[in-house]
């Protein structure tokens, strides 16, 4: 997390104005947020109505990708369209001495741009392999192979990471200097995502070896 | 979770079409999702561009509320405007026998409507008290009292819960019947939000009593 404050906003609309001391525009900070949290919320227009759909995203280099039904509303409405993709992580509740200074610790990234379709079937398979293996290393090759019609039914869209900003807050509350003497407890209630033990499908064939998911973390 | 499938969609645009067997339109299911997860993602238009902003929401009866800077872009762009408010909870990663049937366990709610401003200062204070006490019971009265200018600087918007849908997935993968014999481990990697021990602000006055936050859960 190198840059902070106003320097480096890639465009007027990505310049953080509220709580601007939390702003970051460097790729290191943005990529770390994208890589920590696979759930994105994507905003787009559909028949004049703004819609936000929760969707998995994954990053490779300068792009984030998402997938869904080639015939679905979300994928059709976002293809070639201006979208806003936001990833947010809640890290805690910040209890201050005044209600006004309550806050949450968080990391969030907001990306703007035109969503582009990945059309080459080989490239689609490569990207879907990464999606699967990003959760469960080497799992793709153990699965019942994907069929051509499954790949055709699957659309993949991507967004270049170029018009993006991040906001990151951590640590104790920031109260007005005159409020520190007010005799009330202040501090942080930490919140985080945890991964539990894998739950085998009751219909698993006897003797199938469980994949090693111990390396997977989220948030 | 009573209703499922197509019955009960309050409008054409809230009719779930993809994975429609996961759809719910009853208030019990929708309210439970809103109450479990304070983080919402709100989509709105700003200068023709769809934007999605992560924001805290809280529910009272038939309405969800959110707050922010009266002068801020998000609050000004959403006031009186058509918005889409989505709350989503990731409950796990579902590993299937085919890549195509990988999924996530989740609960999500999507609300459409026009955002309305709460203008009466007394009502604003009442709602902000609920926001604060919803995280930390009885905390409001212990805080340095809110000032008139703080209340003026704070905008509160709300959305009536009337055009809404939910999707809920839980349990093991649903593979194609012919894939169950494929010899690969399938199951669920559970994911959940956990609350840690409160971290006191190093600048706390000596002897201030920690609030009882043990009742707080999220997700
Ligand atoms: C978990 C969570 C909960 C939040 N709860 C609240 C809340 O209850 N009330 C509230 O007012 N705000 C909340 N925020 C902050 C909120 O996301 C916005 O940053 C804030 O509301 C200001 O929005 P704006 O459009 O008015 O800001 P502006 O500063 O005018 O936005 C200008 C530009 O700054 C960048 N930007 C703005 N917000 C973010 C962001 N979150 N992440 C990355 N870039 C951003 C974007 O490029 C945007 O186009 C929360 C954020 C998180 C992550
Ligand atoms: C954590 C998480 C991760 C997800 N990951 C993916 C992914 O990687 N790829 C993917 O395609 N989908 C994903 N989904 C599902 C996604 O949110 C959409 O439901 C799906 O993409 C279909 O969108 P659509 O607009 O084409 O659906 P349609 O069924 O055409 O939408 C019509 C209406 O159904 C309702 N609806 C749609 N989605 C939801 C929802 N999530 N919650 C409540 N109501 C809804 C709304 O009222 C909407 O207006 C994910 C959902 C969650 C919660
Ligand atoms: C880690 C791997 C994957 C995960 C976690 C995942 C998750 C999801 C989720 C959550 C949905 C939305 C379901 C809903 O609407 O409720 C979805 C839809 C979809 N996925 Fe995946 N997916 C993965 C890999 C794949 C792969 C490899 C393919 C193709 C071979 C694929 C094809 C599709 C298609 C076509 C849809 C749309 C289904 C429809 O709306 O009818 N997915 N996926
Ligand atoms: C549980 C209680 C509360 C929490 C968790 C909370 C959280 C937040 C968060 C996360 C933001 C966004 C900060 C950012 O842009 O990065 C915010 C903004 C704001 N909050 Fe709260 N808040 C709470 C209560 C209140 C109360 C009671 C008031 C008024 C008395 C208030 C007034 C404001 C205002 C005015 C802003 C906009 C600040 C700005 O953009 O300049 N908040 N709040």
Description:
Helix content of chain A is 17%, strand content 37%. With 219 residues, chain A is of the alpha+beta class. The first copy, chain A, has a single domain, classed as Pnp Oxidase, Chain A. In chain A, a hairpin with a 2-residue loop joins strand 4 (58-60) and strand 5 (63-69). In chain A, 42% of the residues are buried. Chains A and B meet through strand 2, strand 3, strand 6, strand 7 and helix 3 of A and strand 2, strand 3, strand 6, strand 7 and helix 3 of B. One protoporphyrin IX containing FE sits between chains A (56, 67-69, 72, 128, 131-132, 135, 146, 150-151, 153-154) and B (18-19, 22, 93, 99-100, 102-104, 167).
Q: What is this structure, in a nutshell?
A:
Chains A, B: InterPro entries: Pyridox_Oxase-rel (IPR024747), Split_barrel_FMN-bd (IPR012349). The structure is a homodimer of 219-residue chains. By secondary structure, chain A is an alpha+beta fold.
Quaternary state of this entry equals homodimer
Using only C-alpha atoms, the radius of gyration of chain A works out to 21 Å
Question: What is the architecture of chain A at the second tier of CATH?
Answer: Roll
Bound ligands: flavin-adenine dinucleotide, protoporphyrin IX containing FE
State the share of residues found in helices of chain A, binned by percent.
10-25%
Could you state the order of secondary-structure elements of chain A as H and E? EHEEEEHEEEHHEEEE
Q: Which class do the helix and strand fractions of chain A yield?
A: alpha+beta
Which CATH first-tier class of chain A would you pick? Answer: Mainly Beta
Total domains of chain A: 1
- Globally, the shape of chain A reads globular
Largest interchain contact: A-B, 93 and 93 residues
CATH superfamily of chain A: Electron Transport, Fmn-binding Protein, Chain A
């Amino acid at each position: 997390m190198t840059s902070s404050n106003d320097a480096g906003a890639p465009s007027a609309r990505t310049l953080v104005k509220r709580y601007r001391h939390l702003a970051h525009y460097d790729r290191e900070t943005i990529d770390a947020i994208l890589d920590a949290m696979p759930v994105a919320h994507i905003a787009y227009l559909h028949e004049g109505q703004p819609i936000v759909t929760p969707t998995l995203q994954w990053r490779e280099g300068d792009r984030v990708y998402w997938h869904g039904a080639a015939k679905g509303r979300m994928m059709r409405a976002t293809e070639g369209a201006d979208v806003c993709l936001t990833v947010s992580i809640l890290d805690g509740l910040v209890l201050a001495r005044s209600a006004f200074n309550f806050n949450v610790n968080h990391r969030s990234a907001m990306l703007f741009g035109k969503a582009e379709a990945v059309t080459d079937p080989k490239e689609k398979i490569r990207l879907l392999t990464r999606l699967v293996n990003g959760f469960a290393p080497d799992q793709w090759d153990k699965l019942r192979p994907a069929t051509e019609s499954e790949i055709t039914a699957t659309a993949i869209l991507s967004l270049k990471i170029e018009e993006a900003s991040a906001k990151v807050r951590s640590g104790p509350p920031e109260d007005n200097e005159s409020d520190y003497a007010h005799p009330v407890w202040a501090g942080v209630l930490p919140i985080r995502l945890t991964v539990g033990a894998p739950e085998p499908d009751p219909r698993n064939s006897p003797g199938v070896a469980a994949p090693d998911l111990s390396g997977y973390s989220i948030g």
